[in-house]
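Pilot study result, target chain (310 residues):
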Amino acid sequence: MRRIALLSAFVTIAAAFISCGGKSSEPTPAAKARAILLDPAAEKILVASHRADWRHHPENSIPAIESVIKMGVDIVEIDVAMTSDGVLVLSHDSTVDRCTNGSGPVSSFTLDSLKQLRLKGTHGEIMDSLAIPTLEEALTVCKDKILVNVDHGWNYFPQVLEIARKVDCVDQIIFKSGGTRQATAEAMKQCGETGIIFMPIVTVAKDGTSETIDSYLDGGEMPVMFEVCFSKDSTAIDTYMKALTDAGSKIWVNSIWGSLCGDNDDERAYKSPEDADLYYGRLLSLGFKAFQTDRPEYLIGYLRKKGLHD
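Predicted structure:
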């Protein structure tokens, strides 16, 4: 009987394996990152790379995205704009002037005409083989590998959702936007019905106050995560961050510029590695569980030494 039971169990497992096309049930990197994001008790820090790996490749380009995936980055932040024929493409600016060999608003180009332009590299050199990618092209590269923060994209929610569904990566998408508590509640409902994660952006003023954060702490459903910006570090930041995390939300910091993180930024940590704990360590002490960075490789190395990143 025991042998029959073991054989039956083996057949069940084998059938499950075959029904999945012979693929392992091991969670994908994107699924692992999403699970960490959704778990308030998770200690691992999520690393989000700002405009992908723009230090080594054109920002918002396919090679830049592929580079941060190889690094082990958890979230890639990309920016979207729409062409004149209604196609979402990756562009931080409303014009193509800074990042390509062309000029004019993105919205004045059809996709075909935009694809004739060539992206500029880190030092302004023209990249003969690289054009602005579409959002669909970018999400296809990201599928199963990395979460995607679609910045400048909230006004295009239906279009982003349609593309994400086509690529089958809806649960990898993160939206963020500023606005009132009521606007956030409506956005959370809209995103929650699809599986997309919505993250409100809140700011602590130089005087240490934030009416927006206060409105969240007054009650109601809390978002999974807040993006918190603060130009001046103070004990008020400690108070607010503790209140948000005690309420069950995670918090995201932008270490890309000092004006967004009380001068605890990437460049200070990178240029003075012996003092990295003064900067990154301070942000960790505040309870931040996601860092948007311009130094993804350096930050990952710092976090791994502390056992805070896989």
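One observation from the pilot: The first strand starts at residue 46 and ends at 50. A full batch analysis is planned for the follow-on phase.
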